[in-house]
């Protein structure tokens, strides 16, 4: 193909031509909306660094989930902020824990939307790490037991899927076994397979009150410089029984999403994390960028890179744009 015989501009002439040859089409079907459940009643506390997002007590949360469903979004991803935290993170698997209560209330009021539970301990531990401590380090294997117990507790509360985000080795196998032993062999696992130790989780940690009280997460989350390792991490999760694999964050890791798409044929999720959201909001609020176009361009890029599922705080706004 050579100029002047081939002129790519011929098919860019107007929007109808562009529609005909568009390769990537974002759909509301692709979106998952993350929500923060907190204790108490009548609470709807804005998250300063994430405009339009709130910590919500169950009564408000149910209304937000109804609105999400009315916008045609197929799933929400729940994070919990417990009233009290302890060394072991027992709030994660308490029968009347925040995720468990929120799930039951949502299932009662809005049955026709998927409830996905984030499965981690960092919101529940007093030290803010994603697992159990042993001599000041996050201990892998004792944490696995707690994850399995948490998965079963979330399943009993009625979640449609669990999403382990703690980056412990062997977590998918431990959770799969725990679920199967408890009779939940049909409950799928969406694995945060390649989750990087990223600064882009900053706003989320304010939202979920899950900042580590000492140190950082680099001993369990991945080094941003690595992509072969991401493929090995995903391979482990596939072998251990993941139903959906994930790359997180999304925008700084589009190459990893692209590689994962080529190498694995499981459904692939990408998490457009809090910092990615907040950067666009901040620039738009300053008048430095067109926020709506930036949102749509980024979400389309994540899909173009190969993601089937996009977890994003933009979900309601994007759904509204897509419905026009
Ligand atoms: C919990 C968890 C985190 C996020 C999702 N699950 C935070 C972390 O690992 O520190 C980040 C989500 C976001 O930034 O939007 N382990």
Q: How would you describe this structure to a colleague?
A:
The chain has 324 residues and is an alpha/beta fold. Helix content is 39%, strand content 18%. It has a single domain (24-322), classed as Aldolase class I (TIM Barrel, Alpha-Beta Barrel), CATH 3.20.20.70. Strands 1, 2, 3, 4, 5, 8, 9, 10, 11 and 12 form a 10-stranded mixed β-sheet that branches. Strands 6-7 form a two-stranded antiparallel ribbon. It is globular and about 70 Å long. The model has no long low-confidence stretch (mean pLDDT 97). Ligand PBG binds at residues 118, 120, 122, 130, 165-166, 201, 204-205, 210, 273-274.
Query: What is the count of structural domains?
Result: 1
CATH architecture: Alpha-Beta Barrel
Gap between N and C termini: 37 Å
Instruction: Tell me the overall shape.
Output: globular
Oligomer: single chain
- Biggest sheet: strands, sense, closure? 10 strands, mixed
- Ligand species: ligand PBG
Q: Low-confidence stretches at least 5 residues in length (pLDDT < 50)?
A: none
Helix content: 25-40%
What's the CATH superfamily, by name?
A: Aldolase class I
Q: Please tell me how large the radius of gyration is.
A: 20 Å
What do we call the CATH topology?
TIM Barrel
Give the CATH class: Alpha Beta
Count of alpha/pi helices: 11
Following the backbone from N to C, one meets helices and strands in this order, namely HEEEHEHEEEHEHEHHEHEHHEH
Structural class by sheet pairing and helices: alpha/beta
What's the structural blueprint in terms of helices and strands?
Layout lengths: L14 H7 L9 E8 L5 E3 L7 E4 H13 L4 E7 L16 H12 L4 E6 L12 E3 L2 E3 H18 L3 E4 L6 H11 L8 E6 L6 H7 L19 H13 L3 E5 L5 H10 L4 E5 L1 H12 L5 H15 L3 E4 L2 H8 L2
Parallel strand pairs: 1-3, 1-4, 1-12, 4-5, 5-8, 9-10, 10-11, 11-12
Antiparallel strand pairs: 2-3, 6-7
Helix pairs in contact: 2-3, 3-4, 4-5, 9-10
The site of ligand PBG has 12 residues, from helix 6.
């Amino acid at each position: 193909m050579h100029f002047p015989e081939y002129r790519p501009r011929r098919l860019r002439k107007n929007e109808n031509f562009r529609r005909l040859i568009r390769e990537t089409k974002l759909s509301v079907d692709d979106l998952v909306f993350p929500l923060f459940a907190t204790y108490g009643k009548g609470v709807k506390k804005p998250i300063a660094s994430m405009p339009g997002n709130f910590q919500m007590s169950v009564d408000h949360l149910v209304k937000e989930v109804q609105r999400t469903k009315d916008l045609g979004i197929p799933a929400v991803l729940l994070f919990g902020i417990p009233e009290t935290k302890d060394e072991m993170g027992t709030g994660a698997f308490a029968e009347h824990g925040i995720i468990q209560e929120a799930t039951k209330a949502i299932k009662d009021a809005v049955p026709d939307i998927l409830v996905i539970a984030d499965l981690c301990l960092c919101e529940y531990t007093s030290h803010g790490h994603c697992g159990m401590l042993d001599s000041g380090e996050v201990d892998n294997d004792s944490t696995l037991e707690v994850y399995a117990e948490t998965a079963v507790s979330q399943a009993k509360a009625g979640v449609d899927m669990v999403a382990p985000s703690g980056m412990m080795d062997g977590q998918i196998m431990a959770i799969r076994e725990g679920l199967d032993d408890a009779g939940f062999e049909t409950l799928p696992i969406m694995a945060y397979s390649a989750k990087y130790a990223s600064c882009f989780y900053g706003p989320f940690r304010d939202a979920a009150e899950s900042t580590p009280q000492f140190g950082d997460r680099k001993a369990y989350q991945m080094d941003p410089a690595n992509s072969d390792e991401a493929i090995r991490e995903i391979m482990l999760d596939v072998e251990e029984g993941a139903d959906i694999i994930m790359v997180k964050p999304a925008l700084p890791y589009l190459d990893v999403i692209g590689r994962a798409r080529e190498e694995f044929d499981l459904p692939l999720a990408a998490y457009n994390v809090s910092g990615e959201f907040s950067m666009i909001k901040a620039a738009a609020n300053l008048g430095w960028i067109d926020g709506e176009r930036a949102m749509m361009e980024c979400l389309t890029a994540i899909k173009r890179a190969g993601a089937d599922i996009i977890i994003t705080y933009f979900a309601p706004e994007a759904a509204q744009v897509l419905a026009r």
